Amino acid sequence: MSKVIEVQYEQPACDTRHAWARVPVEPGPVQRAALKDSIRRLLKERNAVMVSHYYVHPDLQDLAEETGGLVSDSLEMARFGRDHAAQTLVVSGVRFMGETAKILSPEKRVLMPDLDATCSLDLGCPTAEFTAFCDAHPDRTVVVYANTSAAVKARADWVVTSSCALDIVRALMDQGRKILWAPDKHLGAYIQRETAADMLMWNGACIVHDEFKGFELEALKRAHPLAKVLVHPESPADVIALADAVGSTSAILKAARLLDAPEFIVATDNGMLHKLRTLNPGKTFIEAPTSGNSATCKSCAHCPWMAMNGLAGLAQVLDLGTNEIHIDPALGLRARQPIDRMLAFTAGSVFKNASGTDSGLVPGIGAA
Ligand code: 13P
Ligand code: SF4
User: Fold this and answer.
1) Residues 192 and 126 in one domain
2) What is the number of domains present in the chain?
3) Residues 217, 293: one domain?
4) Is the confidence at residue 349, as pLDDT, over 80?
5) CATH number for position 176
């Protein structure tokens, strides 16, 4: 199997000052309790349900679960929002998560605490350049990560998240498909190393995971010889090489529960530590290092856009119905097809024939 790695797009510098300036001030205890009470009441009054990602503030994770909503990885957020009966979804996370919810449920109202909460992968994959990239390679099946705009998804044959990307690319490769992959170069390179698939890559990165440092992680491992290392695949190759488990945020949680170790070093956004610690009280979780020898901060792995989600913003959008996600219906229909393929694949239906055995066929792959 031939292998191709090609960088087509020069990643622009990603300015996060706007996001950090919009991170809400932590409320005091009285205000925090009052905001939580308002949110509980408003969720009922508005027939709304919360869907939160593991990287947002612990209060938004706990409230989601406590009120019958969900905290999870991006794949399960999409599925839950689609399947839940509530007519209003309040998505705490980043913009692509809200957009995916809207694409899958155009009839529902999808609100977010801050609509400017974006993602460096989404910012680094503009539609016009990406479309030109795809047009230049019509022989390839276009597989895009969920961390992209609705317009980029609409140009794709498949959408994937980190929890299913490896399996989907492997299945496509088994069909003899050549892949055009965007936008995360580290996740793409990881999949290529695992599958040997023929993949042409976009040059995007997550500004949070891109900062983990392999040489610092080696030093930390030496200081904690019993620790197992859990890594999100948006991290660089030398960090992934040191991992005991590699996977999505949900896979990291699962590995922490199943692996028998007293300590874990975690290479993903530090918002994840809340769930890891709550679910594993007897185990110790240490943040993987993001910086070099001379830096003052050894681990600063937190997504500025995830941090923009707060209790006050959430209460306000529920109260006033502001910050609604809108997607052009025609664009939404096109973007939905590759997302539906992913959801069908992960539900186990795509590769099964009528008798439930593997058919070896990938139906409806589109033009590629
Ligand atoms: P997961 O799909 O693993 O939750 O990841 C989403 C994300 O944005 C990671 O940075
Ligand atoms: Fe995007 Fe990285 Fe933030 Fe996830 S952590 S939303 S990939 S910038």
Assistant:
1) yes
2) 3
3) yes
4) no
5) 3.40.50.10800
**Atom nearest to 122 CA in ligand 2:** 1
> Quick check: is 180 in a domain?
yes
Question: 109 with 140, same domain?
Answer: no
* AA identity, residue 299: S
**Beta-carbon neighbour count of residue 250 at 10 Å?**
18
Q: Which domain does 180 fall in, by range? A: 121-206
Looking at residue 217, what is its pLDDT?
A: 96
Pocket of ligand 1 (CB under 6 A): 73-75, 147, 161-163, 206, 234, 248-249
The whole-number pLDDT of residue 7 equals 62
C-beta of residue 128 within 8 angstroms of C-beta of residue 135: no
Cβ < 6 A, ligand 2 pocket:
94, 119-121, 147, 206-208, 234, 269, 303, 305-306
Centre of ligand 2 to C-alpha 286, Å, is 20
Distance CA 262, CA 176 (A): 43
Q: What pLDDT is stored for residue 6 in this prediction?
A: 61
The answer to whether residues 187 and 236 belong to one domain is no
Ligand (nearest to CA of 205): 2
Percent of the chain surpassing pLDDT 70: 89
Q: What is the pLDDT of residues 115-152, one digit of tens each?
A: 999 999 999 999 999 999 999 999 999 999 999 999 99
Exposure pattern of 120-153 as b/e (b: 16+ CB <10 Å)? bbbbbbbeeebeebbeebeebbbbbbbbbbbbbb
Closest ligand 2 atom number to CA of residue 304: 3
Q: Which amino acid is at 115?
A: L
Kindly list the distances between the CA atom of residue 6 and the CA atoms of 63, 184, 190, 222, 241, in Å, as whole numbers in the listed order.
44, 13, 15, 35, 22
Q: Residue 3 above 80 pLDDT?
A: no
Please write the tens of the pLDDT for every residue from 61-115: 999 999 999 999 999 999 999 999 999 999 999 999 999 999 999 999 999 999 9
93 and 31 fall within a common domain: yes
Handedness of CA 242, 192, 80, 95 (dihedral sign): positive
Please report whether residue 217 resides in a domain.
Answer: yes
